[in-house]
Amino acid sequence: HAYQVAGDSNGGFFRPRPGYPDSSGPGGVTVEAYRWSDLPSGTAVRTLSLVFLLPFMLCNVATWMRPNPAGSDNTMKALCRILGLTLTALYVLSIVGAALDLVAWQCMASPRCVRDRDWLSWLGTQPTGLRLAVLSLVPTGAIALIWWLSARPGRPFSAFHAPTTTGSGPYRLGDVGRWDSGPLVGRLRSIHVATAFATLDASLLAARLSPDVSVVTLVLAALVAAVLACCIALVCAGKLLDHPEPHPTADVTTRLLRTFACGLTVLVVVDVLIDPAQWPPGIGLPRYGAFLAWVFLAQTLLLAGIGLVVLRSRGLRGRRRGWGAPAIAAVATGLAVAFSSELVYRVADLLNREEPTAARAVISPPPAYKWAIFGFVLAVLGTLVVAGLVTVVSARGRYRVAADIVARDFPDAPRKAEPRLRQVERTIARARFTEHLEPITMVYACLIGLGLATSVLGLMGRFPAEVIQGYIGVPGELVNFFLGGGSYVIAAILLGLVVGGVFAYRTAEFRRYVGVIWDLGTFWPRGTHPFAPPCYAERAVPELTRRITYLVGQGNRVLLSGHSHGSVLLAAAVLQLPERVGKRVALLTYGSPLRRLYGPLFPAYVDEDVLREVGRRVGWRWINIWRDTDQIGSWIFSPNRPGDPARPEDPAATVDRRQIDP
């Protein structure tokens, strides 16, 4: 019943066809809708691919959660970007662990493992160097795949970039749509691709090192170390990377680094293939487990550093403390560690046939992966226990407040309405649980950090079963059973994310919650990790701004109506409207997360001053409808509940309109 009047196949503006019911609003108002659903998600295949990019997306969001744009900006940004490099390295190390460590090194050297496996036995009789060189194509292909995925989705957005940029410096909500992140993402992509190839090279060369190693191998190892050092230094050079326009020095430097890393990988593979030196003995790929454990330890230190930056920030003095940054960074790291551990663990299960991988099987992952699974599952279980305690402890207070609200809203309700009143009361009590999510996520962040810290034991070659049995007395068989069960828990989480991506297209209620996560995660530009999904706000906000300006230029007055995350897009668009346009615009929002979610999570970009600027831009022609039964939306400036003091001198006091349950 609708036809498109502007935009393209990915999104745009629609109007009802003439002659259909509800083709116009009250009083003959022209009704027009903006659809952006294909920008953050799109096809089912693309949405499922975003599930596997979830750790990168969360790492990117964590940077925008810093407490304030000044002071902690550079430090927080550098820490998050280095953490992003470790996630890329971990992605490569998981493929290296599956293809090179488990298959090429361990399985092909074991007659029992290659028996009845023609797809392995043909290469099992070849020298170690040839096996590693051939199977290096697997991580190389994985790097190429994620490189292609990160570059491809952003192309349709380029035509909608804003004509001007804001320059370098602190960004606010109104700057999101003006900032063209294309140049920055291109530089970060080059750095991460260089890091990925250098990680593969370091894994091969670390295994190659021995007393009789050749000079060529040592030179290549030094060059790989220099590439990794350059990658870390570049992501910390904020002024160089964050230039909003093409910058010859930054662009050429990052592209040269990427090209050099690609060429260096070819040389490393050739060296592995033709160097006649003996390979060091070992059950697993030499030094691979230590390399992995050092990455886990580095992630632990980076998470601690992010937490310390927030702790020292001035944002701690207010309610909006910016604790979302370490919490979301920990969630991103925990998911990345869990995904990589599960991949290696499943491959080991496949190669071990019927023998349990949790024990000291013939084909065994490094101890660091087993400690990672152990720590992740303990963190999940610990968080669930804390969430249950918070639910029980807070229930009395939440239900007491809900009962008071219901009693005030329905003082003369008939007796037959009692079941409905209790339903409303329960809904309000559940909705108020949103305020208790912060301590739960902080507990998870701390537990993930402690779990990653156990990677030090992996450096010593100690396995969870022997350590726990020796120091705590828990039987090793029980620990191994817990590890095996933990692996299936991670598989269930991953399967749940995939199924969730599918059901988001089939179930409206479930799609709402999935949509909130994707909208929140892909609203912000890719300022940290280039492999994250693209920022749709770079197109949506300028497109909305131009359409509103066009409609006003045609002599119209425009009422903007935004629900849930649509209200965030409209707020960002209003902040970009010329003053002459804002005089003919009014704003209606409902179910808006601007105060309840965006304020606490992004205190540097959505605060009282920004929200008041939105109201001023539209001459305070702004109505925000909210209700106590909403789990996501809330009031913007004042609850305006019955009995609250009136503030006639403050125009913001007239914005919020509380609605009771119908």
UniProtKB/TrEMBL annotation:
Residues 644-662 have a biased composition (Basic and acidic residues). Keywords: Membrane, Transmembrane, Transmembrane helix. This is Integral membrane protein. SUPFAM superfamilies: alpha/beta-Hydrolases. It comes from Micromonospora azadirachtae. The chain crosses the membrane at residues 44-66, 78-100, 129-149, 215-235, 256-279, 291-311, 323-348, 368-393, 440-461, 481-505. Residues 1-24, 638-662 are annotated as: Disordered.
